[in-house]
Amino acid sequence: MHNFSFQNPTRIVFGKDQLQQISKLIPPGSKVLLTYGGGSIKQNGVYQQVVQALDGFDWQEFSGIEPNPSFETLMRAADLVRREKIDFLLPVGGGSVIDGTKFVAAAAVFDGDAWDILAKGAKVKAALPLGCVLTLPATGTESNGNSVVTRYETQQKLSFSSPLVYPQFAILDPTVTFSLPPKQVANGVVDAFVHVIEQYLTYPVNAPLQDRFAEGILHTLIEEGPKALSQPDDYDVRANVMWAATMALNGLIGQGVPQDWATHMIGHEITALYGLDHAQTLAIVLPALLQQQRQGKRAKLLQFGQRVWQLQHQDEERLIDDAISHIRAFFEQMGVPTRLADYGIKADAVDKLVAALTSNGMLKLGEHGDITPEVSRQILQRAL
Ligand code: NZQ
Ligand code: ZN
């Protein structure tokens, strides 16, 4: 196992009727900015509950943070924060609203051009505190220090990480997920599944506990994900999916082990150029990437096939093929197609995606740094 130093400072408040806890979790006397997206929180009653909990605080709101939040919109929010001397941010929504608000937290107090945080990896030396209400289990952003932002003007989807933008608290009430459209439920399950794979399906470093954690989350998503679609009113199913998605990317399972993340980096370019949902891009790239990288990932692919899918063939090549086919079938079962062609994207996209990867510096991806743009090209060709 590799050395590591791990701290996750986010307080998780989980369960029914927990939105009211906001009033105790925000520091008294704070000047709060409630941020949200396109209005789903007004339709499902979450907004009204949050407003009730904010009674007694000096607060304002900023709405319209888009799925795949835009740099342009977020800079308007950062201006508002500075102008109104906001000192606590409260994103209420999915990954986009929370990620976007993390960027606002850093950008509002950044000395210089805030785009450098994303484009040049400029160090985030300060950020406003935030606490969040999660409405879409998927990204893990509710208890991690990551944020992904898209600059629409240049079609660049870039990320940054900082310990300063971990939410101080995250309210996870599974009942708020009942209003999700099936497509978003499925996206969330696929995203969380791929988060685990990025941290697990690499090469062995004798870290059996991390492996078992990862396999436990995968089993849970495989069992509960389809039920979230077929029994949409089942609270326990929603709760299990929600907790699994948080655990998939709150840092725990990735400690001391190699990590991949190439599926995500290639997927981000597909979203930036063609507008696909984040999880759709992962469902396309992952099976193709695993085929392409099967030698380097061989030991873990065998373990994954045996332990997660209970495959028992003697023939190892067949076992690996079946393990990858099971992933594809699971994504398809969730209703997320796994080929570029399924989304109307044709072979001419490959050159454009490889050029975007190259210009964004994605030159040595994967746990071995061996996914060059040329290897990304082969992965994308396999994904057509
Ligand atoms: O905008 P509103 O009206 O709220 O509607 C949203 C949006 O249209 C809707 N929605 C959310 N909760 C709902 C709901 N509709 C009904 N009922 C509810 N309870 O769902 C739509 C999609 O929301 P979005 O936030 O975009 O989805 P998701 O949570 O999948 O977030 C995706 C973003 O997160 C980034 C992605 O790249 C993408 O930009 N990621 C962030 C990560 C992180 N910070 O660690 C890791 C991930 O790998 C990912 O890259
Ligand atoms: Zn993801």
Provide a descriptive summary of the structure in words:
The protein is of the alpha/beta class and 384 residues long. It folds into two domains: 11-176, 3-Layer(aba) Sandwich (Rossmann fold), CATH 3.40.50.1970; 182-382, Dehydroquinate synthase-like, alpha domain, CATH 1.20.1090.10. It is built from 15 helices and eight strands. The chain has helices at 22-25, 40-43, 46-53, 71-84, 95-107, 115-119, 182-200, 208-230, 235-248, 262-274, 278-292, 298-308, 316-333, 349-359, 373-382, and strands at residues 11-14, 31-35, 58-62, 88-93, 132-134, 146-151, 156-161, 169-172. It has a six-stranded parallel β-sheet, covered by helices on one side. Strands 6-7 form a two-stranded antiparallel sheet. Helix 4 crosses helix 5, helix 10 crosses helix 11 and helix 10 packs across helix 14. It is globular, with a radius of gyration of 20 Å. The mean pLDDT is 98. GO terms for molecular function: alcohol dehydrogenase (NADP+) activity; butanol dehydrogenase (NAD+) activity; metal ion binding; methylglyoxal reductase (NADPH) (acetol producing) activity. Its EC number is 1.1.-.-. InterPro entries: ADH_Fe/GldA (IPR001670), ADH_Fe_C (IPR056798), ADH_Fe_CS (IPR018211), BDH-like (IPR044731).
